[in-house]
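INTERNAL TRANSFER SHEET
From: sequence group
To: structure group
Subject: Alpha/beta hydrolase

Please process the attached sequence and return the structure record in the designated field. Keep the field labels unchanged so the import script can parse them.
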Amino acid sequence: MASEWRPDVLGAPFEQLTLTLAPDDEGEVEATLVRLLPPKRRWWAPREPLDDVDVLYVHGWSDYFFQRRLARYWADRGARFFALDLRKYGRSLREHQTPGYITDLAAYDEDLAAALAAMGWSVDEPRSDRRLVLIGHSTGGLTLSLWAARHPGVASALILNSPWLEFQLSGITRGVISPVLDLQSRVRPLSTSPQVDFGFYSRAQAEVADPDDLMDVYLPWRPAQTMPVHTGWLHAILSAHAQVAKGLGIAAPICVLLSQRSAVPARWSEDLTRADTVLVVDDIARASLKLGSSVTVERIDGALHDVFLSRREARNEAYARLDRWVTGCLAR
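Return from structure group:
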């Protein structure tokens, strides 16, 4: 069930809608849909190339939607842009909840179904008059890839911004920890896994931020150092990676945007502002070929983990590559 559209924290003309979901073990659950509609077209004006497109964006881990520039890109071309803060993230996080916690990514089907219904879509009866484009960043890219595989024929295209399709460990190491993680996830699912995050990725984004179009980040929703990683959640991620490794068979065309290289954030250096410090991008590029039969991989020199938050040159290149793909695949 949805409430009424109201002003969003990003300011006008962004609006948000609260989506009421089924309660879980922690209590009440909600998701939040954000929208930016294209300017109303004058009757004499030519049609925009994407005026029959609805876009749904899903954020990554320890994240929420705040990318005004990305929303404007789609709205300026006539598309209706929507972004979903999943349960227990960002606008949807409640005091009684463990941030970001979930034990099966398929549980997000409810969030996505509610969002699509608010957008005028039905999973069971896809629209013939409009096209749906899914955009996912990092863990959101993993979530949407699995969703698209389970719901063939609904989305017309997927755009994945550094999707987390493979764990940043060797196959041998992963094989050793997986059985242990499986046991812990059943016995102590809320136990935290050790991690090292010095906040260098957040610092890199701040270092390269565009002074003419600053991103206002609300730290309680997107902390400088990542939220605690719980065993049950990590087990869900590894299970999802195993599904990707087997191949998902997505029929819709897919565009994967990645940095050209990765860097290990062991200590701060300017080099961290020109690389993905979260994922091993070569592994992601290989894993992306398991998603479907039509996959385009775009490697952006100097890009961060979120390619659209990179320094100006890399960001402009990312949008140019996106625009080329969108024009060839979606524009009419």
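Handover comment: DSSP finds eight helices and nine strands in the chain. The radius of gyration is 19 Å.
Transfer complete.
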